[in-house]
UniProtKB/TrEMBL annotation, chains A, B:
Record keyword Ion transport present: no
Keyword Oxidoreductase attached: yes
Pfam family, one: FAD_binding_4
Gene3D superfamilies, A to Z: 3.30.465.10, 3.30.70.2740, Vanillyl-alcohol Oxidase, Chain A, domain 4 (1.10.45.10)
This protein's UniProt keywords: FAD, Flavoprotein, Oxidoreductase
Record-annotated FAD-binding PCMH-type domain positions: 55-234
Region annotation Disordered: where it falls in the sequence: 1-20
Name listed for the protein in its UniProt record: FAD-linked oxidase C-terminal domain-containing protein
InterPro entries, sorted: FAD-bd_oxidored_4_C, FAD-bd_PCMH, FAD-bd_PCMH-like_sf, FAD-bd_PCMH_sub2, FAD-linked_Oxase-like_C, FAD-linked_OxidoTrans_Type4, Oxid_FAD_bind_N, Vanillyl_alc_oxidase_C-sub2
Cofactor: FAD
């Protein structure tokens, strides 16, 4: 799978302050042996993320933190010398949240990668931020548990990055987003001081909810060095159903009907006609005449009965439905959903967008995206976490006129806001979506966000120019 | 049901700043006709909440807001004249969060009581803050939906108060707390400016999560004048099971086993031996020899099958289990849980405490509370939302030595913190729990909370001396 590429140029974030002759020697002494990298190749490699966005210039250096002490030392040094720090997980972000330009120091947390404890008796895990999402899930599965949030990048993304962006995934429709899984955080503040937030209990209302505030703050308020995460019992069984519909309206209405019936699918996904055509062209197995595709899964104690109930709802309006509790058949049904992004990426460079709309506007959004692509001439493929109204329009940028691509991306965000939605459902704002942030939050909303930023990071050390 | 009474005296919060000759005439002109109450009887009546705590002196006045403009005008006036404002819902709080002393103005939001819209197509409601929790639920039920958070005070508490305390209830084990139901807020800031937070979509990561920060902030960061709330489909069926166990350890282990089996009960409650004895004494129907009681409910598409699965787990270790999907029988089983607080309150004035511990420490907490009562001689009755580890120790204060009651209350909080728990699971900190807050959050944690408070309310207008 080739990576997506940068958004078209957007109004640039204000440049990060530059460090006048930052004493890197002091940083090298303060951190562990070999932690400080100054080789231009390392600095270039760790200056961008999966967005492909490259700020002007290279960062001053990279600290590969091997211990929490390295994080503390880096932030103390950064505060003393007023050097901006860009925290970084695995760099799988799509919004440019981990991009680092001239005058900054990259703080790579990928080396803090231990699962410290899994406590089945309390349904929780304690981890360092560099643990890969899928690795935590595997460690939990060995004990009959599961880590529910499952971003598409789970095999390569870190928990710290997931927390920074409040990552989502397919299971959110039943289990919630990363924020719903984070019970507590161990963080280092901009001045190098440490703080624990949250708790190991499910409920708790002592003090403001710093845990929720920090989750999704894209490294701009604090650096996460540990997390207490909620685990769920590993479901013994799953059920899977796939359905084709004649229109996006019919598909969206069927998804809503499933949820309105009180059924709680663990996956509820939508693919549009353009995406199905791309899969078809790539040799994938798509039912002839399918215009819109819905994939549903159920889990839990009555997964088989529940998928039958889901399928019964889908059958009311679908042109074709297949449901199974048998793993091999389920794999075949899942293949269509899995084939979507690779099939589109075969066509050229893509931009993976990430809007969300109220559930009832899903079909309108899908129609709007098709109309937008027709208008600008830039192909747009739509797939969605339908149960959450979270849509990933994939813009085929490769070989297209850059101005038309820009118009298409802008049109996507305007469409989301026009449907009472948001410019980002689960990927974050980073640098790439800041130009549209005020349109969503209002000028007053952005101003208040900046007051919170100033309260936690008065010198603007942490990931300046991102998120707010 | 008689109300609980105040905690024993605790180290007092710093006194609120007093207003030198606050020009109430200007406030009367700025608010709607009849909105300003200055009669001492009104001021006394609205100066406390269900905690019974009374600060020194009476508030200067009460504004009964009839419109959002009244709220804006009150906060502008308060900012201009540096007068602290105590926002207030129905005054059902148990931690003294809505108590108002000399020099303050009470801002009563109970009159903003409209359900503005229920949107079944998006599974959400838009409400004003004075709507009673149970009324919203009834309005939702008429459309086949439900508002899940169900604090014991649902019939008399307001949504605004629920948001201020991040209220819980019996359904949290499956549906989450109030914070999980709040998608967006319409608030007035301390200076009288308005702001919308959040969104109408299920997912969204544009900007910091102000909605979560404000939920549970006990009126110290902003005044909620509107909320967008998530609704769930009304389950067509429920199942109910009641079980008796020989020990709290057996009961707690059975509750954990239910959750570990991947079952998702919508209610999972625990009563201890002292509570069962009180119900027995009050003439309630308690099974002979029952030492610990567990009540479970299921809902959703397979409620009958799921309650049978729950009962099967409970039967492994219970002395007696009864399960039903039949409403009349369910009512009988529920009666024991419902009888608990009234039976205890017959014995005298009570303090309703609210700690939470990791799920695995529930039995230890129950044993610890029994030992504490034995040590201090003050009766303590324990019931718990077992699925969340959220425990309500009920302290019988009436007729007891005040010093022993104080020692008991202190012992409850120390016990919670010693078991890696929290001093408040769902009631809030208010004024009464502030003395124990630093022991839970650390001095650094409290300092950071105060920085956030200062960022949003630099003059300290909003509910000073509460929560942080």
């Amino acid at each position: 799978m080739t990576g997506p590429t940068a958004h078209p140029p957007t109004p640039e974030a204000r440049p990060a302050p530059t460090a006048p002759a930052a004493p890197l020697a002091a940083l090298a002494r303060a951190t562990g042996p070999g932690a400080l990298l100054t080789d231009p190749a390392d600095r270039a490699r760790l200056a961008t993320d999966r967005s492909g966005h490259r700020p002007d210039g290279l960062p001053l250096a990279v600290v590969r933190a091997g211990t929490v002490d390295d994080v503390v030392a880096t932030l103390r040094w950064a505060t003393a010398h007023r050097v901006p720090v860009v925290p970084r997980g695995a760099g799988t972000g799509l919004a440019g949240g981990a991009t680092a330009g001239a005058g900054t120091v990259v703080l790579d947390l990928g080396g803090l990668d231990r699962v410290l404890a899994i406590r089945p008796e309390d349904g929780l895990a304690e981890v360092e931020p560099g643990v890969l999402t899928a690795e935590l899930d595997r460690a939990a599965r060995a004990l009959g548990l599961r880590y529910a949030p499952d971003p598409a990048s789970a095999e390569s993304a870190t928990i710290g990055g997931n927390i920074a962006t409040n990552a989502g995934g397919l299971h959110c429709v039943k289990y919630g987003v990363t924020r719903d899984a984070v019970l507590g955080l161990d963080v280092v503040l901009a001045d190098g001081s440490r703080l624990r937030t949250g708790r190991r209990t499910v409920k708790g209302v002592a003090g403001y909810d710093l845990t929720s505030l920090l989750t999704g703050s894209e490294g701009t308020l604090a650096v996460v060095v540990g997390a207490t995460l909620r685990l769920h019992p590993l479901p013994p069984r799953t059920g899977t159903a796939a359905a084709y519909f004649a229109s996006p309206e019919a598909a969206a209405a069927a998804c809503a009907a499933v949820l309105d019936a009180g059924l709680r699918p663990s996956v509820l996904e939508f693919l549009d006609a353009a995406t199905l055509a791309a899969i078809d062209r790539a040799g994938g197995a798509v039912a002839a005449g399918g215009q819109s595709f819905v994939l549903a899964q159920t889990d839990g104690f009555a997964a088989e009965a529940e998928i039958e109930a889901v399928a019964a709802v889908l059958r009311r309006t679908a042109t074709r439905v297949e449901a199974t509790a048998e793993p091999a058949t389920a794999e075949r049904l899942l293949a269509t959903r899995r084939a979507a992004l690779p099939a589109i990426e075969r066509l050229g460079r893509v931009l993976i967008e990430d809007i969300a709309v109220p559930r009832s506007r899903l079909a309108e959004a899908a129609r709007g995206l098709t109309a937008l692509a027709d208008r600008t001439g830039v192909p747009v493929f739509t797939f969605a976490h339908a149960g959450d109204g979270n849509i990933h329009p994939i813009v085929l940028a490769g070989g297209q006129d850059p101005a038309a691509v820009r118009e298409t991306v802008d049109g996507i965000f305007r469409l989301a806001l026009g449907l009472a939605g948001t410019i980002t459902g689960e990927h974050g704002v980073g640098v790439l979506k800041r130009p549209w942030l005020e349109a969503e939050l209002s000028a007053e909303g952005v101003a208040l966000q900046r007051r919170l930023k100033a309260a936690l990071d008065p010198l603007g050390i942490l990931n300046p120019g991102k998120a707010v």
